[in-house]
Amino acid sequence: MPGVSARRLSHEERRQLAVNLTRVVTLYRSILDAYIIEFFTDNLWGTLPCSWQEALDGLNPPQLATLLLGMPREGEVARYRSVWPLTLLALKSTAYALAFTRTPGFQTPSEFLENPSQSSRLTAPFRKHVRPKKQHEIRRLGELVKKLSDLTGCTQVVDVGSGQGHLSRFMSLGLGLMVKSIEGDQRLVERAQRLDQELLQTLEKEEKRNPKVVQTGPRHPPHHVVRLREGACHALEEYAERLQKAGPSLRTHCYRAALETVIRCAQPELRRPGVQGIPRVHELKIEEYVQRGLQRVGLDPHLPLNVAALQAHQAQENRVVAFFSLALLLAPLVETLILLDRLLYLQEQGFHAELLPIFSPELSPRNLVLVATKGPLGEALSLLETEDS
Ligand SMILES: C[S@@+](CC[C@H](N)C(=O)[O-])C[C@H]1O[C@@H](n2cnc3c(N)ncnc32)[C@H](O)[C@@H]1O
After folding, report:
1. Which string of DSSP letters, residue by residue, matches 181-236?
2. Atom of ligand 1 at shortest distance to CA of 169?
3. Whose CA is nearest to atom 27 of ligand 1?
């Protein structure tokens, strides 16, 4: 994916990028601020310029992936069936030109060549209960933190938003760091503590069987604490892949937006209530989905429904997908602006700060890590990105 590399920019250029991003994000704020479940209630399609509506109307999901998100399948050439307005083409180019690149400046050797679900660079106890993407992430991030700790002499690590503690566990029991883990969900903390105990027992057994192979010495499992604040994320590449497959799960946003029209009629003050967890949405007729949704939000599931109106909404499924794709196209700009804001803030506070793409983007597209140190790292910074042999 093209884009800007933060490392090549001077402080002044970073500030200018933040100004440009703010201008673009402000220009398209109505798309970014929209809730896709209000597609019908707030006539979101009608908020787009007429020339955009014309260009996007009737495109199916794979065409949206290729033409709008710029992610053609291998060997596929983008063919436009009409002349797109310059504003839309400009948005597409701008979205890529101003976002930080996620392409790492180093070759990542695949750790999943032999077995797609087991990283060859983690030992079995640290892979247990951990999905491959997460195996890659905890290893890369843990190793980066270890190098930073060695370089700076900093011995205490705090993992904020530690979830089930996979990263904390690898850093403390795998790399020997002292870790404090903070997590907002009490259930995850309890599970993390159980997994800590399980891993400690496994490592002790292995140590008895084969003392030379297992790292010995005092073991400090992570210290877990419950705390909560807010956060959210989305990924463009993942959605583009779903568009290319054109699977029935893409229907969900349209169904949910149609449900919102019924909710709004029945109880106007009830806005965007959560209805997660309706199983097998794509196998339901739209009216069946709406009935289940009404029940979920505490309304009468037997309310008389205007099935023709619901079906008319369903016929606009591709428009809903197109609008959501536009919002996702802009999402990396928002992410870049947030990262840049943090980077500039740290620099202005006297820290040396860099953004490094440290995960393989195929495995983990949101791969930029913000590294800040009190002293300059100089050449050592490049060490943080590289893979150890
Ligand atoms: C992607 S998960 C982290 C996974 C974890 N690092 C691991 O290796 O398993 C993010 C976690 O952050 C927690 N979280 C997000 N924002 C938080 C906050 N501001 N305070 C505390 N926990 C937070 C969520 O509950 C979630 O469990």
Report:
1. EEES-HHHHHHHHHHHHHHHHHHHHHHHH-TTTS--S-----EEEE---------H
2. 8
3. 163
